Amino acid sequence: MDRPIATTRTAAGLPTGRLAIWWVIVSEIFIFGGLLASYIMHRLAKDAWAGHAEHTNLYAGSFNTLVLLTSSLSAVLAHKAAEENNGPKAAKLLGLTMLGGVIFVTVKAFEWSAEISHGYTVLTNTFWSFYYTAAGLHACHVIAGVVIMGIIASAARKGQELQRVELIGIYWHFVDIIWIFLFPLLYIAR
Amino acid sequence: MSEEMHHPNYVKIWGILLVLLAISIAGPFIGIRVVTLITAFGIAIVKAYLVAKNFMHLNVQPRFVILLLGTSLAFLLLFFAGASPDVMKDEGSGWTKPSFSYIEQERLVEEGDEHGGHH
Q1: Distance CA B28, CA A61 (A)
Q2: Tens digit of each residue's pLDDT (9 = 90 or more) over B82-92
């Protein structure tokens, strides 16, 4: 049987598919890295931001961190199942990861609704502009990951394109790492 | 399928990540700001390392991937070093922020008024 180009052709000593996802990660490092670096500069320069951060919801942020860390576990277990050529198990674990993503976005929606109803909008001040931009961009990545994971899981259920399970896993773990840094910046540094 | 790789005990690593999360959450409740910040960001770096090494399998990727990520992080650091003085400082050698200049003038005027009032 013909094997896909993403797994057979190699460049730089690794399969093309995996090379591509690492390039995606590099581009994401610049997107999120630039945003976080700008946030840190302003945060260090302005003591008042510590006061603004006191209005973010630590419980919601902590719960979402727990959810994302757990979804990363199911993503890596899906990768392991795919390596064992167990497509249905990989699909099931990807489904759990998607559930984690959906819970994350739902909690975020409630959290934002409460904050907006209390008058903290994207236009309130620079802190809240950063807050909504960084967390919103991250949430967009979570939603994109859930959608792509759904497509990959439906193929994996039939035992097809199992190499993609690892690739979406790498993306998902990166999204997790971004949140690992956003969490202390937005919720803990008060 | 990609080549086989060694799989560590993922559940154990997840457990360690949760313990670290609990410690970082405890920080704001203890209330010592410096300790909170150091533990929060120190723990964030450790958590990110654990996820990158064990879940993304960065430790078994070819050197090319490490170089790729290392270069991007180095450029990020360069961006921070280049842009941060402009954001974090109000004046430097031969330059003053217009907004800082305005605020400083206001402050001097207020001080002048107070000073004048005493006489």
Answers
A1: 13
A2: 999 888 887 88
